[in-house]
Specification:
349 residues, alpha/beta, TIM Barrel, 8-stranded parallel β-sheet, 17 helices, 52% helix
């Protein structure tokens, strides 16, 4: 098992679904709390952990999972904090041998306390991610995210901020937030159509807490290129056929799905069946802090709990490369690079 873990850790990897706000180091949160006078019972990691991370004694459900982000939003107190969090998130990904990362972030979450403009905060993230990527030999694309439950007025401002920074590393627009009948994707249709017309990719959180109706909404209303999670697809054979026919890629995050109560256990996760049904699946972390994982951890979960093979993992990494929000030539080059690495025993040249 140690040998397998070493192999997985050394494997060049791709993460297409990672939230900046869920990727902060616990130690960094303690530093921020002390620097800005954020009241805590005690300034140590173990006291903070249950407020921002899923712990064994906590229920696995949506309210518990989402409560972590309510707490995390209290820490974005300055441009310096945001820049530090971005830099460390990129650094941590590179340390896990992720060679291509699409890091998504929610400008509204980062501006709530500071009160700056959305375009300004997107600029800080873009600039910092660019330098961190160069320092750590990793390619990073940025996905700008908006929440369903925060409405289209905020969504319009976030779209404009994304468009302002298309040449600075922003590659796509994402719809996240509370997936429920009260917050459908359809009202955001015109926002996401504008994003597509401007050349941005579109990814939508769907098929996680709701079933196929949410995924149809994402595909038909927002014209999603990729679906964040999509693990409820097996409930609808017609939807599965459409996913295969249209070559829609699912950004699957197994541990997160378990922690948020979408699946009852890791062994019960639908990823192996989705993969067997020829649906384009990829492996991702979602929120490394909240779930206390790396992408290598996530891969080990699929190998140990889902009886998937290392070859299955490599195929999903190649699928991720072919689904990256890059221009066609750059995307083809990414696929070729990963194929070459895997053929050479996973050792980048």
């Amino acid at each position: 098992m140690n040998e397998l873990r070493q192999t997985v850790t050394a494997l060049p990897k791709i993460d297409l679904h990672r939230h900046l706000e869920g990727s902060v180091r616990l130690e960094t949160l303690i530093d921020i709390a002390q620097q800005y006078g954020i009241q805590m019972p005690d300034y140590n990691v173990e006291q903070l952990r249950p407020f921002v991370q899923m712990t064994p004694e906590q229920p696995h459900d949506m309210p518990t999972f989402m409560a972590k982000f309510i707490t995390l939003r209290q820490f974005y107190r300055s441009p310096q904090v945001i820049r530090r969090v971005v830099h460390e998130a990129v650094e941590d990904a590179a340390r896990d041998n992720i060679r291509y990362l699409e890091l998504r972030f929610t400008p509204q979450a980062l501006t709530n306390i500071i009160g700056c403009g959305h375009s300004e905060v997107v600029g800080w993230v873009c600039e910092t991610a660019h330098y961190a990527a160069k320092e750590n030999d990793i390619d990073v694309g940025l996905i700008v995210s908006m929440n369903r439950h925060e409405g289209t007025t905020i969504g319009e401002k976030i779209l404009q901020a994304a468009l302002d920074h298309r040449s600075d590393g922003v590659v796509a627009l994402d719809l996240a937030g509370r997936e429920s009948p009260e917050y459908p994707a359809a009202p955001f249709r015109y926002i996401f159509h504008r994003a597509k017309e401007a050349g941005l990719g579109v990814t939508v959180h769907a098929g996680e807490w709701l079933g196929s109706e949410s995924m149809y909404d994402a595909l038909l209303s927002l014209r999603a290129d990729r679906i964040g999670h999509g693990v409820r697809s097996l409930e609808d054979p017609r939807l599965m056929e459409a996913l295969v026919k249209r070559q829609i890629t699912l950004e699957v995050c197994p541990t997160s799905n378990w922690h948020s109560g979408v699946v009852s256990s890791l062994k019960a996760h639908p990823l192996p069946e989705l993969y067997r049904q020829q649906i384009r699946t990829t492996l991702n972390t979602d929120d490394p802090l909240v779930s206390n994982i790396t992408l290598s951890d996530e891969i080990m979960v699929t190998l140990e709990s889902m009886q998937m093979t290392l070859d299955d993992v490599k195929q999903q990494m190649l699928t991720a490369a072919s689904a990256a929000f890059l221009p066609p030539a750059a995307r083809a080059a990414l696929v070729e690079k990963f194929q070459r690495w895997y053929e050479n025993g996973s050792k980048p040249q």
